[in-house]
Amino acid sequence: MKEWFTADDVRAARERIASHVRMTPLEESIYLSDDDHKYFFKLESQQVGKSFKIRGALNTISQLSEFEMMNGVGTVSTGNHGVAVAMAAHALGIRDCAVVVPLGTPHAKTDRIRYFGARSMMLGSDYDEALTLGINFIDRAGMFYVDPFEHDPRVYSGQGTIGLEIMEQRPDIDTIVVPVGGGGLITGIAVAAKAIKPDVRIVGVQTAACPAMVDALRDHVCYSRYPTKGDTVCEAIVGGIGEISFDMLPDLVDEMIVVSEESIRSAFKFMIEDEQLSVEAGSAMVVAAVREYPDLVGGERVALVISGGNLDRNILVDVLAEDAER
To answer: Which of 243, 246, 240, 245 has the alpha carbon at shortest distance from 224?
Structure first.
């Protein structure tokens, strides 16, 4: 395994970003837990910007040179990373920030991007197309590209601070379940958590609409671009995977689970109506894994990482109306 970053890098990131982020709650589930299994939601949905992404963005941008900051920063995002970069640039006094998003990105996310003073531009029909067009624009503008998950270990180290928090909040946690898109979140958490507790199990979850990481680990191919099949409520957690996660995750992850879109929609509704928690539909895939494949998830004290809370109103209305239509 190529070691792109270590737990020491994660600890340094935590000190670097501490004044700008929250230690989010780790709350026990009322409905999932029973006498033999306790499940805890790590609520990054209540993080600054309503997503874990602020951690990696801050850790990266705060280490830029004065020259890089003066030239501005830019990124490509399905929404949450873009919000995080806009917030981080604003917090660190960077005047020029551009965020490229795919067509159809929810207004709740683009409005937040603009609120923090960044330019929001829609390019490309999906994330992969937006990435190609967006990087070209950012390069020509001479801005620093804030990588969401592919090649920058500073982003991974920032996301890994969640693993430190979980193990401090509940040292008895034996399993951590993480939604997987590009792989930055799960890789960062795994490095940090296993440094504290080497036998903690790391379980990744992907939607059947885009199982890029599952297929990459199976095929031993880094799918940096990966198509989404059919409709998905996980628009923030689809597309290709990062080089760093491809290199490091095979030695860190204990189980990968693929869940259906139907089970994710059901879990999303469960989180809204029963647990009374405002979460993104894609974040509910970890809950879908517990409900659909409890034996694969395993563990007695299980942390479920709820990665974001920027709700898409159209998805919310659609999912909540499903029972009424049947």
So the answer is: 240
In the three-class reduction of DSSP (H, G, I as helix; E, B as strand; rest coil), residue 33 is classed as: coil
What is the domain partition of the chain in residue ranges? Answer: 7-51+153-325, 54-145
Q: Could you tell me the pTM of the whole model?
A: 0.93
Please give the Cα distance from 95 to 59 (Å, whole number): 18
Distances (CA, A) of 221 to 125, 151, 217, 242: 25, 16, 7, 11
- CATH C-level class of 7-51+153-325: alpha beta
Mean pLDDT by 10 residues, the chain (326 residues): 93 97 96 96 95 96 95 90 94 95 82 92 86 94 92 96 98 98 96 98 97 97 91 85 96 98 95 94 96 97 94 77 63
Task: Name beta bridge partners: 175.
Answer: 201, 302
| Region label for 324, one of left (φ > 0), alpha (ψ between -120 and 50) or beta (otherwise) | alpha
CATH topology match: 7-51+153-325 vs 54-145: yes
Q: Which string of b and e fits 244-283 if b means at least 16 CB within 10 Å?
A: bbbbbbeebbbbbbbbebebbbbbbbbbbeebebbbbbbb
Residue pair 177/40 in contact (Cβ under 8 Å)? The answer is no
Q: Does domain 54-145 have CATH number 3.40.50.1100?
A: yes
Amino acid occupying residue 162: I
